[in-house]
Amino acid sequence: MSEQPERPLFSAEEFFAQQPPPPQLEEHLEQVREFVERNMNAGKRVVLVTSGGTTVPLEQNVVRFLDNFSAGTRGSASAEHFLRTGNYAVIFLHRQHSLQPFSRHYSHSTNPFLDLLSVVHENNKDVTPVQPKDGFLFPPVPAASTSSSVAPTDSSAQIHISPPHLAPMLSLLQSYQLVKSLGVLHSIAFTTVDEYLWLLRGVSRVMSTARDKEGNALGRRGMYYLAAAVSDFFIPSQRVSEHKIQSGKGSLSIEMDQVPKVLKAMVDEWANDGFVVSFKLETDIKLLIPKALGALDRYGHQVVIGNTLADRKYEVVFVERSGETWVRIAEEERGKVGADGAVREIEEDIIERLERMHSGWIASGKV
Ligand code: PAZ
């Protein structure tokens, strides 16, 4: 794809004036307001974590789309570490079906959940594979039901978790249940870049206008942690074909416009006094710091965290006006399981550092 700088650039206002909002935007924002105000009353800071990649559909009845690289690893791990601090309530704005806090540990590809379980019968405690029955290799899965009249197919069977997985799963489940009972995690899904931008603006505005019981704003206690991989280009809705683009006419040319740089609007208008953290992904490490400094200069926010595609799980650089700080997991520690049974994750170090920086930001705003 080649960039075409001669096309006029969309401002953020023009973008929102022309691109339709996602359905249920208002309901989402109402729920966010309730979440933010309840957590402010409980004395929490609130962080918006964005995660995963956005799509650009090529058709309105979408068969094909362009996608941005991101599995949601950074965002989901970070959301979990923010929650673990006990100081933050997290709004998790993520790409639909990408990794999520807690359940991410049992992704179908890295830790297939069903492989950790076995069926045990109470009578003999033997692990018993289901026998082929009535000509079927295995019976159909019964629908989940709340009715007590539906009997389980085998009432004496229990599901057991294989011993090495039991302790970590129990501990994770307890953390997850605690998070649910405290009501400190609120998730919202997006798919397209349009949905992402509408939700980003809406949630940021709600965070900056929410008030606690005493009428105080979230202000500096809000953080915006923008780890999503957002498309730089989009196709304005008027130019998106209604139906599937037909082949047979040879090659396909797609003309895309540049997505407005909303970070400026976010810092100046939407996020009030919040602490804004953006991410910069490059494949060429030489570009990382100059690009991050350029972003700080242009948008005026607090910190850019730079990472490269190849090493993003092991090293990042915090770029601030005062200088750069690399955060790394040493080579010998990579992939190692610690005393607590968990693999060392760079997000733990990122969040620890950010929490301290955020405290400094809050303190510096006090008169
Ligand atoms: O989700 P993931 O862990 O696979 O990737 C995370 C990331 C590289 C998308 C994120 O750290 C990042 O840099 N986000 C911003 C990307 C950008 O420059 O637009």
Describe this structure in words.
The chain is α/β, with parallel strands linked by helices. The protein has a single domain, classed as CoaB-like (Rossmann fold). It is built from eight helices and 14 strands. It has helices at 12-18, 25-41, 73-85, 163-182, 193-209, 262-270, 285-299, 346-364; strands spanning 45-51, 55-57, 65-67, 88-95, 117-121, 157-161, 185-190, 222-226, 233-234, 257-258, 275-282, 303-308, 315-320, 323-328. The strands form four sheets. It has an eight-stranded mixed beta sheet with strand order 7-4-1-8-11-12-13-14, sandwiched between helices. Helix 2 (25-41) runs parallel beside helix 5 (193-209), helix 3 crosses helix 8 and helix 5 packs parallel to helix 6 (262-270). It is globular and about 70 Å long. The mean pLDDT is 91. The structure holds ligand PAZ. Ligand PAZ is lined by residues 70-74, 227, 229-230, 279-281, 307, 312.
Shape: globular
Number of E-state strands: 14
Q: Within the largest sheet, what's the order of strands?
A: 7-4-1-8-11-12-13-14
CA-atom Rg in angstroms: 24 Å
Q: What is this structure, in a nutshell?
A:
The protein has 367 residues and is an alpha/beta fold. It is 32% helix and 20% strand. A hairpin with a 7-residue loop joins β2 and β3.
Q: Which features does this protein show?
A:
Rossmann fold; single chain; binds ligand PAZ; 367 residues; 8-stranded mixed sheet; two-stranded antiparallel ribbon; 8 helices
Task: Please render the helix and strand layout as text.
Layout: H1 12-18, H2 25-41, E1 45-51, E2 55-57, E3 65-67, H3 73-85, E4 88-95, E5 117-121, E6 157-161, H4 163-182, E7 185-190, H5 193-209, E8 222-226, E9 233-234, E10 257-258, H6 262-270, E11 275-282, H7 285-299, E12 303-308, E13 315-320, E14 323-328, H8 346-364
Parallel strand pairs: 1-4, 1-8, 4-7, 8-11, 11-12
Antiparallel strand pairs: 2-3, 5-6, 9-10, 12-13, 13-14
The protein binds ligand PAZ.
Ligand PAZ binds next to helix 3 and strand 11.
